Amino acid sequence: MSALIDLPRPYLLFLGDADDATFLKTGLGLRDWAPALCVAEYKCDGALASLGMPVMRPGEAHAAGARALVLAMASIGGGIREAWIPCLLEALEAGLDIVSGAHDRLSADPRLQIAAERLGRRLIDIRTPPADLPIGNGRPRTGKRLLTVGTDCALGKKYTALSLAAAFRARGLDADFRATGQTGIMIAGSGIPIDAVVSDFVAGAAELLSPAADPDHWDVIEGQGSVFHPSYAGVSLGLLHGSQPDILVLCHAHGRENIVGLSGYPLPSIGEAVSMSVRLARLTNPAARCAGVSLNTAGLSAEAAADAIARCADQWNLPVADPMRPGRAFDELVNACLA
Q: What sequence ranges are listed for the domain D-glutamate N-acetyltransferase-like N-terminal (predicted)?
């Protein structure tokens, strides 16, 4: 596991100059799933967006225990904005490393690079995969693995994996969440950014991420993309084969009918998605099975969500739950994963 990115924690969450919480996806994920790792928030003067956390400048946050400033927002185009540079330099001067999931590289800015070298601080770009990744070999390995897969992108694969890993641990099981995306890596503190790995090494990266383990140990692996997505099917398939999952949980957004952002590509039915995902998974794990469906019902009332979950379960004869709505349906999904 030495090739995984390993992050300094806890964090000061940097919100940049965001005026709308829509741009704080990473910050929201950290606040909701790793609150113990979040010391405070910090933003440019005049910025309006907030995560509702204590506000501290970098020096205060370092004194309170923070060891890294995390870029907790996303700019349009994934860049590092000029307005952020003074704040990032202040963080380095205060003794904090900087962690970024932006497409731009922190080290590409000479001001940050020079300051980091002078102060002995780290500039950590999450979307830079390790250099020593192996090629997948497909050999069976011990331990148990669950992978979240989807009918599309951006519909809850990370939240589902986090919820299931927490539920497994609550039942006394030895379970780890294995992160494959920038926010997941920041939550877990380690992982591999699968979407930045050269295609030949995606399966090998997945094998490294979920290595041989004790027979009773669970790795719950964050899925990426969808094998039905014209743009991202490649990374999804490599992750599927390398993970060698015993269990799949299919994630779907209630009411979504088409691939987001691509006209002319309707989503598969739940049945088609389950069948295809299992068939592809069985190349490297002939015993792979789908335990159920994670249905994203965001925006629905509790009553409407319960109705949508029940109808989906009846239609496809599978356990169905929204992991963000704890209760009997989610307990039944967990039972099916462990059966």
A: 51-129
Measured distance CA(175)–CA(119) in Å, rounded: 38
* Residue 103 DSSP symbol: S
Please count the other Cβ atoms lying within 10 Å of the Cβ belonging to residue 328: 9
Domain that holds residue 318: 144-338
Q: Are residues 180 and 270 in the same domain?
A: yes
Reported as a pLDDT band with limits 50, 70 and 90, residue 319 is very high
How many domains are contained in the chain? 2
DSSP states of 225-267 as a string? S-TT-TTTHHHHHHHHHHH--SEEEEEEETT--B-TT-TT-BP
Same domain, yes or no: 205 and 324: yes
Distances 18 to 47, 88, 261 between C-alpha atoms, Å? 6, 15, 24
Confidence of residue 1 (pLDDT cuts 50, 70, 90): very low
CB atoms within 10 A of CB 77: 9
